[in-house]
Write a structure and sequence with these properties.
Radius of gyration: 27 Å
CATH superfamily of the domain at 255-795: TonB-dependent receptor, beta-barrel domain
Shape: globular
CATH topology of the domain at 255-795: Maltoporin, Chain A
Strand content: over 45%
Number of helices: 5
Amino acid sequence: MTTCLRPVFGRFIAVFIVTGALDVGFAQTVGATRGQLTIRVADSTGATVADAVVILTRGAERRTMTTGDDGMVPFANLAPGEWTVTVTRDGFARWQQVVSVTSGTIDVPVGLAVAGFSETVQVESDIDAPTQIPLNAPATGGSRLDIPVRDLPASLYLVNQELIQERGARSVAEAVQLAVGMQATTNVGSIPAYATRGWDDNSVSIMRDGIRQNSRSQSSRPLDSFILERVEILKGPASLLYGEGAIGGAVNMVSKSPMSQMGADTLLSYGSFGEYRVGVGVNVPLRRNLFARVDVSQTGSDGYVGHSPQKLLAGLASVRWLPTSNISLKASGTYTYDNTSAYYATPFINDGFDRRTLDFNYNMEDRLTKSHNRWGQLEADVLASGGWKLHNHFFAATHTLDWRNFEGYAYNAALNTVDVTSYFLIWRDDLLLGERFDARNTFVVAGRTLNVTVGGELQRNDMERAGNPVPNTPAYTITRRLDPLNPQPHFDPGLPYVRQRDVLVTTKGVFAESALDVTARLKLVTGLRWEEIGLDYTPFPSLVTASKDYNPTTGRLGAVFQITPSANVYASYSRAVEPTVQLVSLDGSQQQFSLVPARQLEIGAKGGAFEGRLDGTFAYFDIQKRDILITALIDGIRTNQQVGQQTSRGIELTLVGRPSASLTIAGDIAVAGANFDDFMEIVNNMNLSRTGNTPRNVPRVIWNISPIQRIGRFDITGTVRQVGKRWGDNANTRLVSAYTTAEAAVGYSVRNGSRLRLRVRNLTDSVYTQQATSNTAARLEAPRSIDLTFTTDFAGF
C-alpha cells in the first residue's frame, strides 16, 4: 500500500472496527416501547411475490400472515427484542433471518430464490418488471452482502431481460446504454467500449458472472443479449468487488441459469442491412433436484457500411444439482465467437462528413477480426449450521484473437485522396484460472443486526501476445492513397505475426463487507479489499523477465438512512486503483510507477412514492484520480512523471412514473463535468499543457425519455436520446457535435408469452458519431433501420 493510502485506510479500518463498539453503547439506550415490522417480499428480479407465508416467532410467541399482491405484510405491536422471520412459498427456498425489533417501524426486504440459491424466477406482479426500478432486487452487482439495491450506498442499475426486449437492445452494448449516463461505443477491432461519469477506456471494467477476464480493451467482445438474464452496471469505483481497473464503474453480464420448472424462450428477428437474430433457450427439470438449461444464439448482418459483415455465435449450457436442501452445485460452460469485417472510420472531408462517402469502407478487403471465448465455471453453495452461507466459485476462461486492419484514415486535400495508414496486427492467446470463496452470515450484536461477508480469491492470467513487425519497417509505415468517391480495393500485405511478449499476472486477494443496523432506520455499509498482484513481463526476443508486485487496498464506507418505508438516502466514500497502462502492456521501463489511486464521494437517494406510481434514484458524485502518468520534455529528453490529476463531478437522475395503469414514462439525465487538473502532452517536440481542458469524448449531458402506452394486446413504445457536445481531443480543438436520436416500436401480444414487435431505429436518419476516432476520422453510427422481432416465453408446459 502506498504511503498516501495508509492514513486514509488506517482511519477506514478504525471506523470499520469501532462502529460495532459504538453501536453496543447506543443499543443500551433504546427504549422498551413496542415496534412494527414491515416485510417486503420480492424475487431476484425485484418483482413482488404474492401469497408468501411470513412467520414471526419469539420464544413461545408466533404470528403468521400472507403477503398480498404488493408482496408486503405489516406486523404491529411487537415486543422489543429478537424475532425470527421465516418466509416460505411454493417454488422458492425457505428464507429466514433474525431481526432485532426496537421502537418505530423496521422495513425488512426479503429476496426469495429457488432452493436457497441464485436462480431467477419470474413472478406475476401488479407492476411489470420492465416498468419499474428494481430497488428490492438483490444487490449482487454491487455487493456480496445479502442486501437489496435500495440499501446499497452506491449507484447500481439492473437491466433485466424483460427490459432488454421491451427497449429492443440487441447487444450488450445497447443494453448498457439503458442505464443513466452510460455511453457504449465500438472501438478498434470491433471492441465494445463503455464510458460513464467522465471516465472511459479501461476505467470501466467488464465482467461475466462476476469474473473479470482482463482489461476492457483486451477481452471485451461484441455479444448478443439473448443469452443473458440481466446486465448489472455499478457506477463509480468498483475495485472492492472486481479489483484494479474499475475507477469509472463496472459492467457485469449475468448468464441465464437453470430453474426448477420446465420452460423455453425463443427469439427470431430480421431487419435492415440483412440483419438477423435467432435465439433458443430451453430449461428442463431432469429430476426433482436436478435442472438443466441450454441457450444458443446467432446474429448476422451485411453491415450498414459497405463490405462490413459480421457474425456472432453464442452458446451456454448449465446444470444445477441440489443433493440436499442445504447444498447447491452448478456447472456451466459458455462459448462465444465473433467474426467481423471491421468498418473502422469515415474520414473528415472539409472538416465534416461528406454524405457521398457514408457507405464507403476504406479498410482493406480482407480485413479480419475473429475471436473465440470459452468459459467454464463450477459453483457450490452450502447453507451451513449457524446460519452460514458458503459459496465457492472455480472458473477458467480462454480468449484467442486474430486481428488485421488498417486503422489510420485522413483526407489529403492537396491530392484529393483518402490516405490509409497504420497497418495493425494483433494475435492473442490467454488462459485465466481462478478460485473465489466467501462466507456470509447475519448476527445480532447488542440488539443490532450485523450482516457480514468475508472471503478470498486466487487468479492466474497467462497471456501471450504477437503483432506487428518491428515498427518503422516499410510494411508498418505503408500508406495507400484511395479515391474518396471511388475507393479501389486493396488487400492485406500478408505479413506474419511476430511474437512480442508473454505476460503472467497472479492475484491473491482477501475481502470483507459488513452492513450494520446502527438504528432501526440507519445502516452502516462498509467493505475492504487487499490484493497482492504479481506481474511478470517477458519480451521477445530478449526473454529477460521484468517483475513487479503491487499491494493495493481499496474499499467503500457508506451510510444509508431510511426517510420513509419506501425511500432511502445515502452517502459513501470509495477508493479504487488502476495501473498507469493496462497490466499486459506494463513493460520493465513502466513497472517503476505505482498504481494510480482514485476516490469517489457520492450522495444519493433511492425510493418510491405515490403508492408505487413513481420510482426514482438520484446521485451526486465527485471522483478524483491522481498520480496520472504524463510525459514531458525535460532538457530535451522525454521523461515520464507520475504527477497528473483528473476529476469529474456531476449528477444522475432516473425516474419511472406510472400515471395510469396503461401508461409508463421512464426518463433519466446525467450531467457530468470532467477536467484535467494537471496534465501535459508532447506535440511536435513541445510541452503543451492540457490543464483545465476536458478529456476527449466526455459529453456534458446525456438524457433519455421512454414512454410506453398499452392498449389491449398492443403496446406502443418510443425513446428519444440526446448526447451533448464533446471534445474529440485532449487539446479541445475538435468539437464533436451533439446528437439526438429517436426510435419507436409497436408490439402485439399474440398470446400468453408470445410477442411480435416492429421497431424503427434512428427515425430522423441522423448522421452522427458516438466519438471521434482521431482528429482526422470518426466512426459513424447506423442510419435509419427497421426490424421485426418475434419472441416467445413459455413456462410450465
